[in-house]
Amino acid sequence: MLNNVVKRFLFLLVFLLLLMQTHLRAQEDFNCFSVLVGRDATLNHAVLFAHNEDDGGHQVVRWFKVPGRDHKKNEKIPLLHGAEASEVSHTLAYLWLEMPGMKFSDGFMNEAGVVIASDACASREEQPELTDGGITWNLRRLMAERAHSAREAVKIGGALVQKYGYASSGRTYCIAGPEEAWMLSVVNGKHWVAQRVPDDEVAVIPNYYTITRVDLKDTVNFYASPDLIAYARERGWYDPAKDGPFSFRKAYGRPANQRNRGNITREWAALNILSAKQYLLDEPFPFSFKPARKVTIPVLMTILRNHYEGTPLDLTDGYKKGSPHYTKERTICTATTQYGFVAELRNWMPPQIGAVMWLAPRRPCTQAFTPWYAGITSIPRDYDGGDYLKALKNHFHPDESLHTLEKAPAYTSFTDFCLYADSSYASLIAKVKPSNLKFEADVRNNMESFERMVLPLFDSDPDKARDMITKFTGQLAEENLKRNIARKR
Prior knowledge:
The protein is 36% helix and 20% strand. The protein has 489 residues and is α+β, with helices and mostly antiparallel strands. It has one domain (4-487): Penicillin V Acylase, Chain A. An 8-stranded antiparallel sheet has the order 3-8-9-10-11-12-13-15, covered by helices on one side. It starts with a helix and ends with a helix. The relative contact order is 0.13.
């Protein structure tokens, strides 16, 4: 009989082979998944933003709290491919989830409660106009550093794309704040469009453009590059006589990407959980829709954990055939999911306490979500990424030691447990799931009394209030890590 060490070795070997196959699939349907919910569509009237960050390969996530900073006049920011952007006089503080070496994977929540993540979307454009190499990685960082609202972030992002050009096939930046939520879809080059999610609706996006109808006269709900439609006509992507009303998705999206099954099934699954209408896989999906009932944080967490359980797309027969992360169907929670979050953005509180990122390190299905407040002043010890200035400077030249337990104890531990869980998923998840759900429910209950106690201090003693939310966040994050370690014993 094989001892535990040998069993573990054989499992890891099989896992690596499966991971290579999964990574190839991820290249076809790209990565990531998001849900944006307007404040009138949620149970507690907060804007909600759910996101899974999916990236293949050997990854690590580091946490930073970057302080607000004043900058010198004429200071420049070097962009990745050679261009330079002018710095502003003051940049906002923000929580930064860094994935070293990656161009499009970092998540942000700034002190104003603006949260930014993205979903890759392939465009038709193969003749991009770029200025000095264009902009990529820095785009979301600059929005996070400068925007006091989601709408302002959209305007900043659109202006940067207009000036430098976007140096990748295409992407949709999901941007949410305490007042509203937006999608900013950018195309390789200098074309972009943004649409506001209606306050009483929900928008779901996998990895293709979902913005269709564009009303450039409606400046409350849309922004776009001035020649968006004219350029599409010039390139032969849009013919009014043949195509009817202009659709950004149809004109600018790469057709194969729009037909990708892994994208379609993920959007379909979320739609059918949230919408009163039950959609078929082969029918058009809406940009946004009214939910069947008011959306809650636990429902969004359930979606981020989804593997098509209870549907014909569940190829594991309730996990009887193994882990759901390695089937031929691309699931919402998958082998390449590096972290998941649900941002809760409440406009009736100061953003330091009103903006919360419920964060699940590595895979949401095996880890509990814990709350991270926008106003924390430091990162818990085992999560702390260290010197943020060094991280900004060395982002594309990371030290391989960052992937070790010594340098990233929390993330390495969570990753190790994911591999362990996949080796016997059915039996382990039966224990892990109820434990995580109870932990999350207890945290939510404790948060209510904690916030009632702390909230008045933001007027009378804001420094003490920030210290308290920092301590509270750190205790829960460390407790979640201890729970994770105990499970493997």
